[in-house]
Structures are given as C-alpha cells and as structure tokens.
Design goal:
The chain is α+β, with helices and mostly antiparallel strands. It folds into 2 domains: 236 residues, Bira Bifunctional Protein, Domain 2 (BirA Bifunctional Protein, domain 2, 2-Layer Sandwich); 81 residues, 2-Layer Sandwich (Enolase-like, domain 1). Helices cover 32% and strands 27% of the residues. It is built from 11 helices and 15 strands. An 8-stranded mixed beta sheet has the order 7-8-9-10-6-2-1-12, with helices on both faces. Strands 11-13-14-15 form a 4-stranded antiparallel beta sheet. Strands 4-3-5 form a 3-stranded mixed beta sheet, with no helix packed on it. Strand 14 and strand 15 form a beta hairpin. Helix 1 crosses helix 7 and helix 4 crosses helix 6. The longest helix has 15 residues. The relative contact order is 0.15.
C-alpha cells in the first residue's frame, strides 16, 4: 500500500484524484487530504434537493457530485478526509466496518471513544463525527470518509439545511444526523494539521507503509483534465440528478404565486405558474421556462428578459429563490 498525504485545497481536484487513482492504477492507497469548503453529494442524489441552494449559491460554495453513493457531506477547513483504495474479490469488496476499522482504532488510540455505528457512520456518544461511502470499480474498492475535527458546524448545518416537500423524486436521500467535532472530545486538542499528521503516522504503522506516493506531472495533468471534463461540469454536478417534480411558492409584489415544474437531467421540461393576478409577463415566462436549466443564474436572466425584475438586479431575492428553488 502507498500513502498519499497532501494539502492541496481544491475540492474538485481532490475528488477527481480519487477516481484517477482508483481507475488508472493497480496499487492500493491510503490518502489523507482536506479541501476548501464544498458540499459533496452522493452519485445518485438530487443536488438541489440536498443543499440549501440559496445559501451555497450566494456564498460561492460549490456543489460537487462524487463517484460513490450515499449521502451529502460538507468539506472545508477543519474537516480531514481519508480514502482507502483496495484490491479484492468481487462480491466481497463492500465492507464499511472493515474499512473504517483503521480510523476507529486511531481515534481510540488518541483517547476518543469512537465506534462504528449504523450503516456507515463513526460516532462518539451517539454524535456523528464521520460519514462514509464506497464505490466498486472492477476488482477494486474506493472507501472514503470525513473526520470532523474542528469544522465550522454552523456553516455545515446551514449549507445542507433543506425545506422538505419541494422536490419529489426517486433519488437517494441523506439521513440527517447530529454531528460533533472530534476536538471537542479532547482535553488538549492539537491543531488541525498536527492531528492530521498523527493520523498519517498511525496509518503508516497500521498498514506497514514504507512507500510515500508523490504524483508525477503526468498524473497531475490527467487529474486536472478529469476536473475540467467532469467534476467542474454542470452536467455532472446538477444535470446527473434523477428526474424530479418541483413545487415552489412565494409572496411577490403583493401576489401569492406557486410554481410547478418537471425537470429531467437538470433541465425544465414543463412549468406552470398559479396564483392571483398573474400578469402577461408571468405567463410569458411560463412559456419560456421549458428547455432551460433549473439554475439561479438562468432564472434571473429570464426574469430580466420578461421585465419581472429590473435589468440591474444582480441576484435573486429570497422571495424569488423560494419560488424557483
């Protein structure tokens, strides 16, 4: 097994690198990494239904779809991520308890009474400190998870806060859990990078690793290409979402307005407004919605074109976000 320990902060690059190592190498890897803030959703989730879209959009927090299934997690400062890529026998690759065992052992060794609980969580006193997911590729397994060390839990909770009932689909939905930071269970908590180095040294001993992996220039170029062609693409992060029915409502300009839309591959197929005193502009907007992406910048552009909002308006108001998202 090879160990990769790095602090490249680009979440798009870090997530793409996992796929590259899984699919373009026969080696086994243990990877420790951390990223700038991002909401990372499971492969089979509806992106808009899993995030507080007005919040993350207005703060330029990217939403990134990963290769594995499972639920939504938040990446950012104070959140250490770990990845194990192992070879095995088809049918015996998926094993959450086995693949989280090195991390649980490390935490216990550090004085944190962590346990593997539920389907794929690591918890302390019933509070979730780590969410995990897996993906099988041929005879290889990708297992990855988060470790909330001293993350901004307010930012985390607000980024993934949802309003139930707006989206109806057959996607995998996240199970919301109470979370906690690992540092809160330590009397003299070390700094984040010191904790990360402790984890690195523990894994080196656990797996008896001598080989530190340093990606070459060709590796980095290949990962960057994967970022450009897949992980930064709207078609992957949002357009890959399962088909869904959306229902929104708001009070705007003294009128109560509702919107019902059917969306396929992230693009609006049909749309219908209802409410009192709908003007010709709203009716014209209704006709123009099909064929467009269900995306904030697109909705604002159409609202300007139909003179529902002023041309100089730069963002959707809270009322309009409530109608369209």
């Amino acid at each position: 097994m090879k160990l990769l320990y790095h602090s490249r902060r680009d979440p798009f690059y870090n997530i793409a690198q996992e796929e590259y190592l899984l699919k373009h190498s026969a080696d086994e890897f243990a990877v420790l990494w951390w990223s700038d803030r991002a909401v990372v959703i499971g492969k089979h989730q509806n992106a808009l239904a899993e995030v507080n879209y007005p919040y993350v959009y207005s703060r330029n927090i990217p939403v990134i779809r990963r290769l594995s299934g499972g639920g939504t997690v938040f990446h950012g400062p104070g959140n250490l991520n770990f990845t194990f890529i192992r070879n095995g026998v088809p049918g015996k690759l998926v094993d959450f308890k086995k693949h989280t065992a090195p991390i649980v052992d490390f935490l216990n060794d550090a004085g944190i009474p962590a346990r593997f609980e539920g389907k794929n969580d690591i918890r302390v006193d019933g509070l979730k400190i780590s969410g995990n997911a897996e993906h099988v590729y041929k005879q290889r397994i990708l297992h990855h998870g988060t470790l909330l060390y001293n993350a901004d839990l307010g930012l985390l909770n607000e980024s993934i806060r949802i309003i139930p009932g707006r989206y109806k689909d057959k996607s995998v939905q996240s199970v919301r859990s109470r979370v906690a930071n690992i540092s809160g269970f330590l009397k003299n908590a070390p700094a984040f990078e010191a904790f990360a180095k402790m984890c690195k040294e523990y894994l080196r001993a656990y797996f008896d690793i001598d080989d530190i992996f340093l990606p070459g220039k060709n590796d980095e170029k290949a990962v960057e290409m994967l970022v450009r062609e897949k992980y930064r693409q709207w078609s992957w992060n949002f357009g890959y979402s399962p088909d869904y029915q959306f229902n929104g409502n708001t009070h705007f300009n003294d009128s109560d307005i509702s919107l019902s839309m059917f969306v396929k591959k992230g693009c609006i197929v049909s749309a219908a407004f209802s409410g009192i005193d709908l003007t010709p502009s709203w009716m014209a907007l209704e006709k123009s919605l099909p064929g467009n992406r269900h995306e904030a910048s697109v909705m604002l552009k159409l609202l300007k074109e139909h003179h529902i909002v002023q041309e100089q308006q730069q963002v959707l108001t809270a009322e309009l976000f409530a109608l369209f998202f």
